[in-house]
Design goal:
Blueprint lengths: L1 E6 L5 H12 L3 E6 L12 H5 L2 H8 L5 E5 L4 H6 L5 E4 L3 H4 L3 H10 L2 E4 L2 H5 L6 E2 L14 H8 L6 E5 L10 H12 L6 E5 L5 H10 L2 E4 L8 H8 L4 E3 L5 H5 L6 E2 L3 H14 L5 H8 L2 H19 L1
Parallel strand pairs: 1-2, 1-3, 3-4, 4-5, 5-6, 7-8, 7-9, 9-10, 10-11
Helix pairs in contact: 1-15, 8-10, 9-13, 11-14
């Protein structure tokens, strides 16, 4: 099977993880990214996305079974090529963000649509396939906390609240994280620091998660945030807003908390830093969203599209 991938950011770790897993299953993947050196926090114009169309059309005349538009913002280019069936995978911000109306219209014209959560599925007027992005359970696994803190250069005599993104990413809402931490400090005598992590190799993120006491995710919108699932795989407690599939993922995970209320979130942070305990998240995430489990489900979608085109 040969697949032409379109993607907004060829550096997206879950995309590269997905491609590697599918290639292990015999899929030959070619990738075209939006031709712009995009950095987290930067904006893109409509012109940037239009520049994806010419290389997509040229490549579509090659020997491919279908086009896989990863992120709804690449869907227009996928649908305008004249030759191949189209699979669209929605990532969350494409459906709920600025270009949501365009994303919905494009998704309705695709041959197949994959979304990451039931919340995303409910936002569409048809029934897509729900497949969250997978987690590498070999890379994201529990480590000894003190050793992890020493490795990343954090103090070992206090607790640490981790915001796992570049603070400049508006949708992740770092200012809200700062407010929640400030409110939590008023509720406990335990000393803790707010930490951010960005721009480090993905292989090192697991060490930061093991060094932390709790992960805070105050996002305005999400699909199926990998940071939450990666934290769960490390048994790191999570305090998060009720976005995407976060509530579903954290159901039964203790200690952790999901709410839209800042008082509830701040109290949960304070309680978790006081307890200083790990969660039971790994046992939940291992069964449902390992890389292998999600890749198997996506491969079934690939196979059905290729078979229908024969």
């Amino acid at each position: 099977m040969r697949v032409l991938n379109l993607v907004t950011n060829h550096r997206a770790r879950f995309f590269n993880q997905q491609v590697a897993a599918l290639e292990d299953r015999g899929v030959e993947c070619t990738t075209i990214a939006v031709p712009n050196d995009h950095q987290p926090g930067d904006g893109r114009s409509v012109l940037d996305y239009l520049r994806l169309l010419p290389p997509t059309i040229r490549e579509s005349f090659g020997d491919y079974d279908f086009v896989h538009a990863n992120n709804g913002l690449t869907a227009p280019a996928a649908l305008l090529q004249p030759s191949l069936p189209v699979l669209v995978s929605l990532w969350g911000s494409d459906l709920f963000g600025r270009y949501g109306p365009i994303t919905r219209r494009c998704a309705a014209r695709a041959d197949e649509v994959v979304v990451m959560s039931d919340e995303m599925a409910d936002a569409l007027p048809f029934e897509p396939t729900v497949i969250p992005h997978g987690v590498d359970l070999d890379r994201f696994a529990p480590q000894e906390q003190r050793a992890a803190r020493e490795q990343v250069g954090w103090r070992t005599d206090c607790e640490h609240v981790l915001f796992p993104y570049d603070p400049g990413r508006e949708v992740k809402d770092f200012p809200r994280a700062e407010r929640l931490v400030a409110a939590a400090r008023e509720q406990t005598d335990v000393e803790f620091e707010l930490q951010t992590v960005s721009g480090v190799p993905h292989a090192e993120v697991a060490t930061y998660m093991n060094a932390a006491t709790v992960l805070v995710l105050p996002s305005k919108s999400e699909g199926s945030p990998n940071a939450v699932k990666e934290a769960m795989a490390c048994n790191l407690p999570v305090v998060a807003t009720d976005v995407g599939d976060v509530r579903e993922r954290l159901d039964g995970v203790e200690p952790s908390a999901v709410s839209q209320d800042d008082e509830v979130l701040a109290s949960a942070i304070a309680e978790i830093v006081e307890r200083g305990e790990r969660s039971n998240g790994r046992e939940r995430v291992a069964a449902e969203v390992s890389v292998d489990a999600t890749a198997d489900r996506l491969y079934e979608v690939y196979r059905s599209i290729a078979d229908a085109a024969e």
